[in-house]
Amino acid sequence: MRAIQLPSSRKLQSTSRAKERKSITTTYSVWTSRIARHAWAARKEIDASRKTKLSPALDKIAKADAIIIGSPIYISAETATTKALIDRFYSFLAPGVASGQYMNRMPKGKKGAMLFTCGNPQGIELYSPVIARYQNQFQRLGIEGIVILVPSVNPGMKVLETPRGQKALEEVIQHVSG
Fold first, then answer.
1. What is the per-residue pLDDT for 3?
2. Domain total for the chain?
3. What CA–CA distance (Å, rounded) separates 8 from 161?
4. Which residues neighbour 108 within 8 Å (Cβ) at sequence distance 6 or greater?
5. Residue 19 CA from chain centroid, whole number
6. Phi, psi values for residue 124, rounded to 5°
């Protein structure tokens, strides 16, 4: 399986268990300002054939069997770098016949997972609009996706080494591998 991981936080880097299972074949560090700048600049593209420095990552996304994106939630929303990357996914949509219609250019059969973390113990209830937005994004792109939120994450905590984080990671691996 060719999967691409796009963590927007150092805390969400894949664990050695995921790498040992060869579930993750490529990791792009979305949290670096360089990727964020290129995602921001690329959003101005009108012609999808034009290349930017983010184009290699988008090419790998198109070729991957699965996409895994991770982001903490700060102030009720995903990070700006994650949002910039997701905004760039519009390049997988082509204008349709009628106004407001789009044809999906994302290869069929792709699986996806979005893993969010937040500090609030009631995060799942509070941030349900964020979860719904990403479920809709996966659906719009024809991706069989899941969105998971791990609440009660404290600053400096290694999320994927906690029982909640391990459970979330197992769900992600099972979803993209199954």
1. 62
2. 1
3. 17
4. 142
5. 17
6. -60, -40
Place of tokens 């996304």: 61
CA 50 – CA 42 distance, rounded (Å): 9
**Alpha carbon distance 21, 14 (integer Å):** 11
Helices and strands (DSSP H and E) totals, the chain:
7, 8
- Rounded to whole angstroms, the Cα distance separating 104 from 10 reads 31
| pTM reported for the whole predicted model | 0.71
pLDDT at residue 28 in the model = 53
CATH code, domain with 85: 3.40.50.360
Pick the closest to residue 18 from 8, 31, 7 (CA basis).
Answer: 7
The mean pLDDT values, 10 residues at a time, for the chain of 178 residues are 61 49 52 45 47 77 88 89 85 73 82 92 92 92 93 84 90 90
Question: What residue has token string 């973390």?
Answer: 117
Q: Are 30 and 6 in contact (CB under 8 A)?
A: yes
Q: What is the DSSP letter of 81?
A: H
How many Cβ atoms from other residues are within 10 Å of residue 21's Cβ? 13
Which range marks the domain in which residue 79 is found?
Answer: 3-177
| Confidence (pLDDT) at 76 | 87
Closest C-alpha to 53, from 36, 68, 70, 67 = 36
